[in-house]
Structure formats: C-alpha cells, structure tokens
Amino acid sequence: MDVQFLGGAGEIGRSAVLINESLLLDFGMLTDSPPQFPVRTPSPDAVVVSHGHLDHVGNIPALVSGDARPPIHWTPPTYELAMTLARDTLKLHGGTLNCPFTETNVRRVTQVSETHGYRESFEAAGYEVTFYNAGHIPGSAHVLVDDGETRLLYTGDFHTDDQRLVSGTTARPDADAIICESTYSDVEHEPRETVEDRFVESVETTLWEGGTVVVPAFAIGRTQEMLLICEAHDIPCYVDGMGKEVTEMLGQYPAFVRDADALQRAKSHARFVTGKDGQRKRITDQKAAIVTTSGMLSGGPAMTYIPEIRANPMNKITMTGYQVEGTPGRDLIETGSAEIDGRVMPVSARVEQYDFSAHADRDGLLEYLESYRDTPVVVNHGDRCGAFAETLREDGYDATAPEVGATVTVY
Ligand SMILES: [Zn+2]
Hints:
Elements: E1 2-7, E2 16-19, E3 23-25, E4 46-48, H1 54-57, E5 72-74, H2 76-93, H3 103-112, E6 113-115, E7 122-124, E8 127-133, E9 141-146, E10 151-154, E11 177-181, H4 192-208, E12 213-216, H5 222-232, E13 237-240, H6 242-250, H7 260-269, E14 271-272, H8 279-283, E15 289-292, H9 302-309, E16 316-319, H10 328-335, E17 337-340, E18 343-346, E19 350-353, H11 362-369, E20 377-380, H12 385-394, E21 399-400, E22 407-409
Parallel strand pairs: 3-4, 4-5, 5-6, 10-11, 11-20, 12-15, 12-16, 13-14, 13-15, 16-19, 20-21
Antiparallel strand pairs: 1-2, 1-22, 2-3, 7-8, 8-9, 9-10, 17-18
Bound molecules: zinc ion.
C-alpha cells in the first residue's frame, strides 16, 4: 500500500492519510488564523473517518464538491459531530476563503454518509475496513484497513486509560503496519484520579468561600467529562455553549459511552443555560461551576462569563485542557490577563490548569505499541514525531516519521 500524508504528519491538525489514491482516512483542518487544510483535496473512491474532532473531520464537506460523491464511513457519533462542526465552521467562516465548503456540500455529506459500529467490517474502495474503540471520545475508532494481503492499522487519536465518559482502548487487532498518533509522546500525565481530586477540591473550596468557578471546556468530550465529575461529586453546575448540543446528542448513543446511565444523571444534574433575559450575567454570582465553551477562551459564552467574574479574587477559572500558544487561554495562564473580544483584561480571579487529557501519554503509547513489537510503526500526529520514532528505533522498533506530503509504502 502506498500511504501519502496530506496533513497531520509531524504536526497536529489537518489529519489526512491517502491510501493508493483511492481510500482517504480523515480530512481535517488546523485551527489557526487563517485555518490550514490538507495540502491538496484528492478525489478518493471512499472516505473513512476516525473520530469527530475538527483536526480529523473539519474539511470533510469539501470532498463532496462538483460531481464527487465518495461514500463517507464513520461511527454514528462521529457523523453527528462532523455535522455539528461543519455547521459551526460555516457560521464562523462561511463564504470566505477560510471555509473551503458551502452549505450545499454539508447537506450532501448526509446523502453519502454510511455509519458502522465497532468490530463490524465493511467494504470501502475495495478494502475491508473495521473500526475498534479507541477510547479517545465517544465514537472514536482505530481503523484497520485490509487489502487481502496487507493489514494497515491507523490508530487515530486514542487513550489507554479510562475516562469517565469513555473507557480506554483495549483493542489490539493484528496488523502488518501501524500509523500511530504521538500527541503526548514526551509527556507523562498525572494519574487521572489525582487530577480529578485536585480539581474537585479546588472547585468545592471556591464555592464554599462564596465564589463562582468558570470551567472552560472543549465542547466535544471534555464538557461531558466535566459534567460527569460535577454529578459524581454533587457540585452544582451550569453548562453552556456548543457542549450542550453535544451532550444532548451523545445521550442518544448509549453504546458509545462508558456509562450511559451516568451520562444521563450528569445531564439531569447540570442546568442548561439558555442565555435568555441576561441569564448569563445573572448566574455569575451564584455559587456554582459554569462549564462552557470555548476551551481556550477564543469564543463562545466564556466571552460573557470571564469579564463578569474576572475582577473578584474569590472567583476562579479552571482551564481543563491543553492551551495552544497564542490563544487567550494560554495568555491568561502565562500573564494573568487575556484579550477578550478585542480588549485586554487583567484577571484577579484565580486561574488554574488541569490536565484532563483524552490522549495516551508516553507510557500509554509505549504500552500500546508493546503489542506491535514486530510491526513497522509510522509515527504521525505530534509536534515531535521524529524524536518519538528515534526513541522507538532505539528500543528495537522499525519506526519512521514522514513529513507532510511524503508517501511511504507498507507491506
Ligand atoms: Zn482527537
């Protein structure tokens, strides 16, 4: 198989892997200003998508332009998330060069969509393809591609540890070659329970003291994880932003979450913010946690909450995910002030950072790859792919880290 990396090699964002010019795995976008897309838009016979994050599905509607109507294969939650993200991109960038598709393209995606569960093999562009639970977000999949001679495993993003929302991956299908993500290849996460305990204690302390806690969280996965934690520890909470819609949607796919009853309880426990009649401003003086997008303070209702709570040192802002350089969230952590809606605002409220990662860390990646000792490994999806491939080679693996645009042949 000839495997070309159209994006997501040696970088995070715009993932796109093309097999023999006919089967495309993922077609994402890199959020930046301006956004970046895969190096070219191919005309595949079929498309298979690993999971519903912007850097893996963001540019999918661009594949159904002109006469092209390749079937798009994914799990049901991935399909739903892709549609939510596409509509959001249209809202943010529609009609500009920063949006390479139109509303018509997005509608066509529905017509060519084919959904599959885990471990149900299907045919795509002449290959036999199977999804395995990747433990990253609901619906996330490892993708096994079999052409009858070679079995290629594309890990997509994955986590080896359990989160409250999804269990860690346990699937280790036989493969002749593996494309492995490496987002946190040089990081060791603090144990999840420890992170959660620190977070809960911090939030509870602030609420007891009469403060409000704003919890910026990514809409997909992280918001639901935070709501599950709030329910488990009986922390009063509100939820706002795109995470509301995603929470409602995931409730319809119990087979793709770890504990559907727990998610249902978390949904009932949280108060959904409508934003009507100045509700947002009103709830900022209540002793509650407000879980809201955007996770990096670059938009969403967080833009209303932060200015309201920032001046009172009794309040708190708890960042729950990685903050990309140049985002207001990163600036806030590093400098104590952030640019919100074009205004630089000093923040007296306390700011904290918690690592609720949905990716395997260094030990998790190595543990996963232990099952693939004799399998050539192609490292992608990371800022330090080359260094991780080197580590693997020193450990006896056949490992490489191609650059964007490169083609590797696997047997
Ligand atoms: Zn992801």
